[in-house]
Amino acid sequence: MTEEPPPIRQWLRDNGYDIDERRRIPAEAVAAYHAQFPPVDDLTGDADCDKPPAGA
């Protein structure tokens, strides 16, 4: 079983980003987070969520 990544706002604060709890997160900051923790498809468990489904 893999470890869950930290919440994005917590990770950003821990890595020096000045993030307000109620404001939008800049795209560059989200990209930095996803570079370290790639999104995972909840249905397939696949880390590459952008590829089409098998057989499509």
UniProtKB/TrEMBL annotation:
The keyword DNA-binding applies. The keyword Repeat does not apply. Signal peptide: none annotated. Residues 3-35 form the Lsr2 DNA-binding domain. Keywords: DNA-binding. This is Lsr2 DNA-binding domain-containing protein. GO terms for molecular function: acyltransferase activity; DNA binding.
